[in-house]
Task: structure prediction
Amino acid sequence: MSSKKITSFFRKHTLLKITSLNSLVIGIRLIVSVFIQNLLAETIGAAGLAKVGQIRNLLGMLTSVSSLGVFNGVVKYTSQLKEDKSQLQRMFSTAFVFIGIGSFCSALVLFVFSESISKYLFNSIIYAYVIKIMAFIVPAIAMNRVFSGVLNGLTAYKKYAKIELLSYGLSSLLLVSCLLEFNLEGVLVAIAITPVLQLLVIVMVFGKTLKSYMRYQGLKLNKQFAKALLVFTVMSLVSTVLLNYVEIDLRSQISSKINEEEAGYWTAMLFLSKNYMVFSSGLFTLYVIPQFSSIFEGGAFKNKVLYIYKTLLPLFGVGMLLIFLFRDFIINMVYPGFEPMETLFKWQLLGDFIKLAALVLAHQFLAKKMLVSYVITELMSLSLFYFLSMFLVDVYGTEGVVMAHFFRYVAYFFIVLLAIWYYFKRQKN
Result:
């Protein structure tokens, strides 16, 4: 096939264009991540890695709470209203009121209860100052979410790739510098202040576009959009906040029931998983939500899902198979001395493959604001994961948590499939 035909083929398939560019970004990120994870493993060990997992989960919770979960709403309405700037401005104005409330409340809780939070996360109050630093960073976290939502809603995937690479590169340099200078404490501080770097990169690369769509004077709450965005707030708080809380609690349970090193092995497995799963997260917000938002008929939805599956799942499946086959090499290269985590790969990879297929379907809930379906399925999924993990970890040790991860997503896939089938059947009637 000639280069002109290849170029023409990619132009006709937006998903493939986004996938190929996303693959390049993720590939570069993975190379950098290998170096960083190796350095972390050799410098702070499995127990230190468990603490890094705790602070990352706290940051994940803040990402949702500080912005009151408006990200997916901003993606949806930016995609739908980009030609109607007056309506778009009302939505942005409401979103900024939301993040003002979320940021203030989050910062206040972090600052006032810093010692209690440090005690819960690290079983010590010595990291309370890191929690206080995060309190001052909260507005940057919230602004990142809104600006990223605009970026995704406009399907500006080239700028998205540039921002991802620049922000990841700068945050990696910061983390390595702090690690070498201050060890574990430096890593925790670097993670805490990374959102500021990310915000600066977004403004630098995407600032002109943001300025053309947003006005920051006279911000006020629009009742119509407040009601619409509240749906996404509930969805985000149920999924993101509860998921991060469950991971924090399970890590604490593994530390107490087995030891902190085992908690570190599971954390390392999660880091690897999140590194390759980030490949799909960009596709969901850049492609899936905008596409599903404009589909209102069951047959069209089925065709779009099958197209995404045929395009995405084979690529993802081959990548996961290679990761499984070379798992020993990956452990030796990325996490030297973490050989016990080898048993975690099979269940984590199987679970992540089913998770990807399920999440494609579940983004219909976000695209159509199916609040009840989303909340029920998420609560069932998280409850199943938590209680299965608590049971299986007593029987199989740390491997029980990744087994629970697999069983959870098999059940979740069929639950979501049933909910969507019922939705279109009701729409037809």
